[in-house]
Amino acid sequence: QVQLVESGGGLVQTGASLSLSCAASVRTSTLTNTIMAWFRQAPGKEREFVAAIRWSETVTRYADSVKGRFTISRDNAKKTVNLQMNSLKPEDTAVYYCALDRRLWISTMATTYDYWGQGTQVTVSS
Question: What is the pLDDT of residue 72?
Fold first, then answer.
């Protein structure tokens, strides 16, 4: 069974940076056939796509709202996916979730991901 654990959330001021990590409890070889992604959900809003990465060849995709500010990457040895968030805005405030699916195509739809972490809170003050 795949388990995902997010870390790195916190309270920061507008313009600051945060780095989130998601540790996957799977064999490294298994990750070569997976897509890992970050979603976020603010109070009263639906869960929205943030960024995704194809583990193999590190192909990435970003939501327009974070493009140029956020960077998704992975560490094969540590079996983690990272989300570097720069120039944070109050609109970025949300619970951030890590997701994984055993496939090779990137999707921005939350319903296409089978495995989820419990989330980590990111709060950006104005």
Answer: 97
* Residue 116 half-sphere exposure toward CB, CA atoms < 13 A: 14
Would you tell me how many other CB atoms lie within 10 Å of the CB of residue 56? 13
The pLDDT tens digits for 56-77 are: 878 999 999 999 999 999 998 8
Between strands 80-85 and 18-24, the pairing is antiparallel
DSSP E strands, the chain: 4-7, 10-13, 18-24, 35-41, 48-54, 59-62, 70-75, 80-85, 94-101, 115-116, 120-125
Q: What is the dihedral of CA 3, 94, 52, 55, to 10 degrees?
A: -30
